[in-house]
Specification:
By secondary structure, the protein is α+β, with helices and mostly antiparallel strands. Helix content is 37%, strand content 15%. It folds into 2 domains: 149 residues, no CATH class; 106 residues, Zinc/RING finger domain, C3HC4 (zinc finger) (Herpes Virus-1), CATH 3.30.40.
Length: 344
Amino acid sequence: MIINESDIILVSDNEKRESQKHESLRLSFSEESVSFKSYNAESEHFHISSQISCGSRKIGEEKERNKSRKVPSLPSVLNEFFGVYCLLSRSPKKYFKNRCYIGYTVDPNRRIRQHNAGKEFGGARKTDHRGPWDMVCIIHGFPNNVSALRFEWAWQNPKKSRRLRILNLKKRANETAFAFRLRIACHMLNSDPWRRLSLTFRWLLPDLEIPFPTDALPPPHISVERGSIIKTSTLIPQLQEEYDTIGICLLCLKSINSISELFRCFASKVCKSRFHMRCLSKHALNVNDDYKTLLFPIQGHCPKCGMSYLWGELVRDQRILLAVSEFNSSGTSSNMIPHQLIKF
């Protein structure tokens, strides 16, 4: 059999085409394998992502359910607090150690944190980088913020205050900076107008307590207490039956038109007597014939039950009633007073 050269070339070309075909099939199969693996990986990733997403959604739903389970808080009003405090530096730097700082606050616990955190967090410029500070004592019970701020300024500037400069108070030999500040405060508590206020002197750090100066002891009606301040609130009654009309004055037997005119006996659970503020003031001042010279007494006794009271305590009770009334200004309990105030 004779094989031509052209036949050899044809066979060679056919083999080459077959080889190329097999190679292309192999590559195609490899690509499909890779694609299949990639698809499996993506599917697995999607499955895991779906599980995570479902898990997150379940956690979110659980949190929402927990929120819905919480008992709604009852409405309340924050009881007023106005205080003037004295800080004592515990700085390791000799130049700042044992220095004092006088300030005003409505929240002592928050204020001391601010002072020790620094000016960027609400602390005063004069206390920045000069601590740590201890809030040793605080005088509180002022009727309003203006009264407290005036006390703060006079305590800071005894030489400028017209009430104190006549006393010519100077730091004594061997007297610490804090002892001097305490002596100034005690003289202030014995001077007008502060000596007639129902204030409280509180030692916040009893281990740093020192004796009051013998020549300026706090007046007898000034309460001296020890321990930290706990801010309180008063619950607002929700039922109409928990309120009562203001009523009439026990002294003049006339109607009391608004809470701003009302003073209640402090033993209200037992006595429940109500008075015009002016009538009760006149009754208490007439005991010592002070009605012509003074606007209000320091203390007195209820005309009905005889229980003693401090005028400042009655003022604070009235301000709580005003706050409750303001909260209820749009309701049926407006200008009415609750039978009982629950503080917490």
